[in-house]
Amino acid sequence: MLTRLVTRDDAEYLFKWRNDPHTIAMSLNSMPVNWNEHIEWLQLALNDKKKLLLLCYLENSAPVGFVRFDVYHHYAEVSINLNPCSRGKGLAKRCLTAALERFQREFRKPTQIIARIKIDNKASQRLFTGTGFTYFKAQDNITFYALDLTSSQKT
Predict the structure, then answer these.
(1) pTM of the prediction?
(2) What is the set of domains in the chain, with CATH numbers?
């Protein structure tokens, strides 16, 4: 699985994927967004040095997924959204793994990555535990998973 940085040219992909009914149902923010809101968010995110926006793709194929990292001092929060056409094909784990590898090359400081997942989103819970994340709590219909990077970082 390959990754590349998101650009403004990816806005339409991301907008369609974000407003997919299944995505909306599984998202922490379960409201659709309009085009102007999306473009405003994307422009701010692309200019934010504390965000890493990645598209995952197979060679010579359309993007299969989007992974976003919001970076804080000692941790980062991660979220993933697959192209609806790519669901159920075993690509989510490959996408997330490739994005995590890219994240570790781009950012050295955070020592932990957090994922917040709706309690009902069993597929995402399996995805994150399958890539090394550990469940640590549930609160307000959200489960929290963490990946400790200190054991895998080279000194």
Answers:
(1) 0.91
(2) 2-148 (3.40.630.30)
